[in-house]
Amino acid sequence: MPVLKIGKIQAALPIIQGGMSVGISLSGLAAAVANEGGIGVIGSAGIGMKEPDYQNNFREANRRALRKEIRRARRLTDGIIGVNIMLALTDYDDLLLVAMEEEVELVFLGAGIPLMKPDTIALDRLQRYKTSVIPIVSSARAARLIFRYWANRYDHVPDAIVVEGPAAGGHLGFKRDQIEDPDFSLESLLQEIVPVVRAFEERFKKQIPVIAAGGIYNGADIHRILQMDVQGVQMATRFVATDECDASVKFKQAYLDCRQEDIIIIDSPVGMPGRALRNRFLEDVDAGIKKPFNCPWKCLHTCDFRQAPYCIALALNNAQHGRLDDGFAFMGANAWRVDRIMPVKELVESLRAEYAAAVTQSSQPPPR
After folding, report:
1. Per-residue H/E/C for the chain
2. Is the CB of residue 211 less than 8 Å from the CB of residue 194?
3. What is the pLDDT of residues 122-161, one digit of tens each?
4. Residues 241/256, Cβ–Cβ less than 8 Å
5. Facing residues of 277 across strands?
6. Nearest residue to 151 (alpha-carbon basis) of 111, 112, 123
7. d(Cα 119, Cα 103) in Å, to the nearest integer?
C-alpha cells in the first residue's frame, strides 16, 4: 500500500482507525494500530466517564482522562496517534487544548463545521503546538466553506480532510432520505469534494490529502477508493472486532452476532440520524418508552436533556461495558460481515493481502 503523508508526518499504511468515543477506541486500540504503521485515534467524547468525579466535575474528568490515554498510548507505541473531537461537545475547547499540549500529531474534528470557535484555539496555536487539525465533512458545501473561511481569515488551510459517506457508523451528517440516495454515496461525495480540495492545494502550494471514510471494509475497497485521487482511508467498524479494541467482549460479540437486517438508522437525541444495532433498548425507545436519567452536566450543545428520551452518553457507556440491555452499539453498514475477533496485526495483514490481490487483478487484461 502507498504511504500517507499529512503535513510533516508520514504513515507507512494509508489507514486511519476511526475515533470511536465513549470508550471504544482508547489507548489500547490506537496504539495497536499505530504499531502496525497506521494512524491510531483516541475517541474523546465521554472519555472521562470512568473517572470517579465525572458526575460532579465532568470537564476536569474529561481533560484528565484524555491526557492519561494519550500518555498511555505514547508508552505503548512510537507510531502516530490522533484524537477525534466532536465540535458539538460543550468542553470541545478543553479537549482540543489537551490534545495539542500533549503534542498529538493529528486532531480530527467531526459533528460540526470548524469556523470561528475552533480556530480561536487551533489556528492561533498551530505554530506553537504543531498539531494538524483535520475536519471531517459529508458535503462539498461544508468542505468549500471550511477551506474558504480558513484561507481568507488565517491564510491557512487544513493539512488534510476526511470525507465521510453515509455508510459510516454512529452519527451521520446526512438527512434520513439522503442515506440510501446514490447521489450521496461516498463515491459521489468524493467526485464533488476532491476538486474543491485540489483548487486550494494549488493555491497554497501544498499537498492536502483526501481521506475517505464510511463503509470501507476490506483491502479491495481500499484499492478501489484510492483510485479516486484519494490518499488514505478511515476505518472504524473493522477495528471493533479486534483483541485490542477497548470495548468489552460482550460489545464485540454483538458485532459478531448481528445480521444485516439488525442494523438500523435511529434518530439520536443530539438531533442527527445514526446507524446502530437494533436491540430491546432501542425498540423500547421507538415505542415511546422514556429511559429516566439525571443530567448533572450538559455534554452536547445539541442535546435538550429535558426532552430527550434517554441519555446517549449513558446508553453508549453502558454498551461499552457490555450492558446492552441498558444501551446500544453504534456500527457501520458492513458490521454484519464481521465474523470473528482477531488481533490488530492479523487484521492489517489481511487488509494488505486483499489490497495486493486487488492490485494484481486490476493489472490483468480483461478476458476476451
Report:
1. CCCEEECCEEECCCEEECCCCCCCCCHHHHHHHHHCCCEEEEECCCHHHHCCCCCCCHHHHHHHHHHHHHHHHHHHCCCEEEEEEECCECCHHHHHHHHHHCCCCEEEEECCCCCHHHHHHHCCCHHHHCCEEEEEECCHHHHHHHHHHHHHHHCCCCCCEEEECCCCCEECCCCHHHCCCHHHCHHHHHHHHHHHHHHHHHHHCCCCCEEEECCCCCHHHHHHHHCCCCCEEEECHHHHCECCCCCCHHHHHHHHHCCHHHEEEEECCCCCEEEEECCHHHHHHHCCCCCCCCCCCCCECCCCCCCCCCCHHHHHHHHHCCCHHHCCCECCCCHHHCCCCECHHHHHHHHHHHHHHHHHHHHCCCCC
2. no
3. 555 555 667 888 999 999 999 999 999 888 887 888 999 9
4. yes
5. 263
6. 123
7. 17
pLDDT greater at residue 305 or residue 103:
103
**Burial, 250: exposed, middle or buried (Cβ in 10 Å; 0-12, 13-18, 19+)?**
middle
Q: For residue 6, which of 135, 155, 132 has the smallest C-alpha distance?
A: 132
Place of cell 467498524: 237
Pairwise CA distance, residues 59 & 46, whole Å: 10
Global pTM reads 0.90
Residues near 104 by beta carbon (within 8 Å), at least 6 away in sequence: 70, 81, 82, 83, 131
Q: Delineate the domains of the chain, giving CATH numbers in brackets.
A: 4-247+336-359 (3.20.20.70), 250-334 (no CATH)
User: Which tens digits make up the pLDDT trace of 312-365?
Assistant: 888 998 999 999 999 999 999 999 999 999 999 999 999 999 999 999 988 776
The string of pLDDT tens digits covering residues 239-293 is 999 999 999 999 999 999 999 999 999 988 777 889 999 999 999 988 888 776 7
For residue 9, the one-letter residue type is: I
In sign, the C-alpha dihedral spanning 51, 55, 61, 63 is positive
